[in-house]
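Deliverable D5.2: sample structural annotation.
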Amino acid sequence: MNKDESLYIAGPNCFWPRGGNTLQSYREYSLFHEFKVALPGDPKPAEEKAKEKPWDEMTKKERGANILKNCADSMDASTIIIANLDNYRGYSPDGGTIFEVGMAYAKEAKCYAYTRDIRPTGEKYTGVRWTANDLIDERGNKVPNHDLPFSVDILGSCKIIEGNYFDALNVVMADIKEESKAKACRAKAAEKLSVEPTVKSDKPIVYFCDFDRYSENAAEKYAEVKALLEKYGFTAYVPTDPCPGVEELDCGEDRYAQVYNEFDRYQQHVRNCDIILADLNDFYGYEPNADVSFECGMAFQLRKKMYAFMDDIGRMIDRVPNKGEDNGCKDINDMGVENFDAPVNLMFGSSFKFLDGSMEEVIRKMAEDLKAE
């Protein structure tokens, strides 16, 4: 049964000390259980390799783009993703890993994830404070979904296992056995979410993807953003907008049903758009927001046009504290900081066009770039 499945192993392990050995142990264990394994670093066919520029002749940006292509090729060959959700350089999982989960979900791969810390985010995060009724973050906003272990898009897309990679793979194998049994059963399968667009427009549809969806003044900000997008010739959707085809359910006190309904709205907005405009500023550490990262991965896999804005679009190695290029750009925990001349990790750095300035300047630059194509 396992022979029909190909695993994509996602996580920031390659930046760990001895991380390559860790990934190899995951691969060997998976191969032992007869899975195929597709990883970005796998050797390419000789004829394809011969067409590439040698690594030492590539610019840093070209290297990043080359790795992203390898990731996309490996994802295309995969049927299952197993992702590491442990916190990474802050209070959130690695943004690149969540990007890959978004890619996997968009191609309808089975999504699994593991973590050693399944506690609610309100317990895991430091730098927050309680008021009389709410948990408040450093920005003065309510901590979103502080009673849940991860963001809406992670919870909506993944089966999450408490433990390590090997625990997750054991769950995958148990599920495969159950799926095999279910093929002989007449029970009705759960209905899948829509994978087709549910809106049309005579203007390009932009999904404005950011983390202000959680803030109390989201409605005010989004009204301004949508007005600007419409001014420059776009049809605009934001995360809080109702999404045609997605019923807004009254889930009562069932938080996971509520999360899944919200997730359905977000993922459908991505499917409906022609263009994603994403806020990739740091969120609770040095990583982008997890919901934003997931939706960016979906957009990439679905071949949307991709634009991002940040306060600082300089190099990541100048933004994230590290020991310098002469010392391998290692951070305080001896983990590597990516050095591909991009403001964030290569999943974003090699897939997005980055813009800065005021919101109107960002939207104007995007409109001008699209007209120049």
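Annotation notes: DSSP finds 13 helices and twelve strands in the chain. The two ends are 47 Å apart (CA to CA).
The annotation will be released with the project's public dataset once the embargo ends.
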